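pipeline: protein-struct stage 2 | run 1193 | Indoleacetate-lysine ligase
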Amino acid sequence: MTISIEKPVPAIAEKTVDIQHTPFDADKIQAIVDKLWALKSNNTEAAPKISSYDEFAALVPTMNGSQYTELAQQAFKQHTEVPVLIGGSSGTTGPSKLILERTNTPGSRPSEDDIQLITELRMAGALNPGDVVVNLFMVGMYSLLHQGFNRILEACYCSVIPLGSLNTDHLHNQLTFMANAEVNVLVGTPGTLIQMANAVKDSGITLNIKRILFTGECMGEAKANVLKAIFPGVRIIGCYGLSECGFVAVEQFNGKYQVRDYAYFLEKSAQGRLLVTSLNPNLPTPVVRYDTGDQFNFISLANKIFLDNLDRADNSFNFIGNLIKCSTITTLASEFLAQKDVLIEVALDTDEQGRDNLVITLLVDGLSLAQCQTFEAQLCQLEDFREALDKRAGTVSVVCAPPQAATLSERNKHRTIVDRR
């Protein structure tokens, strides 16, 4: 049976709901907690018995990145009976972490979780049989995502061009090859997708892209508008997930991310941060109450739970002892330019006198020097910036550049903060 949905579903009233977690399944949680306790090298006590969410929250601590890394190293020591893919997280938001993923052995079939994910992507109209997809996720030791996404594409009966990244010396040949293959879907990080879109624009070659799937970072309206301008009529679909455990939620026609609550248990911490527990018993390294570092809202829609307003909880930088949020600058820039979701970059370095120099780049087409200077003057009226100027301990300047000039990390994600101090 072919499932293909390309038309938006009728609008249904939505509401933000004040809930702390998604539906709780004590049996599934107990199985994961048992595995976690058995794996901990320094834990000789039996796993706690969990019959309710309150017991789970009270008896099982949250997990941070360093704790996950220790657990993954312990799992690696015990992996000999089960073959695994060995890789790492990107290191974009912290030190790279060891990531283990079970391989498909001969005769094995997709897990129930994988089957459900494939079904959801088909039902959401994201991937259809016959699609020709360019996989732009980076290839290499620190990117299991490229290979993992190839598996998903193949299971959805898509044809795959496993590109990985564009080669600037062979751009025309690569794009011509894609055009001849009648590529209609792109998958990758927003940074890589923007790079691809601008390469297509500059080349004059036409790619009839119908859908774009992204993960790895927030897309934002500014980046989405660039993609829509270069690929008219394209539908952009987000897949929210973690390197440590896979895709947690998939964006639907309403722009919200539907939680895969049969495969993941999600909580909102007291600080409003997203905690994730994978319910997959075959995951080599258990992910239990893992702090993602993301903030969000729960949305209730047609008896289903969605994530909304997903963003990094801490996207800030230190300037002369003051912790400044990038969102503060973005909000001011949006108001100043009367544009939603202005793309910015923050660069910091130290001069010979030991002063911190802050350069804010507005990644917007067509800005004049006068506009940059006016916005710079507005920023310098804010106390956190004015303090540095008054003390002659730092400088603040605003420049502009086109969106395609955005700085990309080694993993082709937009690097909002470039700190060279």
